[in-house]
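Q: HIT domain-containing protein, please. Structure only.
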Amino acid sequence: MGALRPGYVLVAPKVHRYSLAEMPAAHRHEFLATLEFVKETLTRNFGPVLMFEHGGDAACRRRSACVEHAHLHVWSIADEIHLRLPDTPVSVHPSLDDFLQRPSRISPYLLHVRGDGRTAVGRDPGISQFFRRQIAEQLAVPSLWDYATVPCWDNVRAAVRAFDATAGHPGGGEN
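A: Structure for HIT domain-containing protein:
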């Protein structure tokens, strides 16, 4: 829900965690394989992707995340959007995989993967849907940031059709 442009998917680990930083190492390979498939499919059908996470925590403190299960937003709007952390990044990793191997010590956190693959992590200011607000602003529809009130079903269906047309994805059709 909330796909202001086509090519928007959430990728979540099968095991329940509040953030990707908490994902067990045993689940990392499958998650990254699924993510690679999603990125390739979205890029091929809609254009270059950007990725971000509003990483929550078990204490459920005020945070930007609205869902209490880890998920990475993958969206084919990288050529239109430049995400910014609220402050200087606490850490920058060469890749998302590197971050998952050595996750941030801060929680909750914000994370975005830059076009070159580097993964920037910063403190979460506790503003609901922090990155979605930036995206809506940069797409010149600032009032449409809330996924729950603006589902954009036609754009969601466009992403579903792109994946329906793709055979041989990881997990034998279960991801």
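A: Brief note, in case it's useful. The beta strands are 8-11, 50-55, 72-75, 91-93, 109-113, 119-123.
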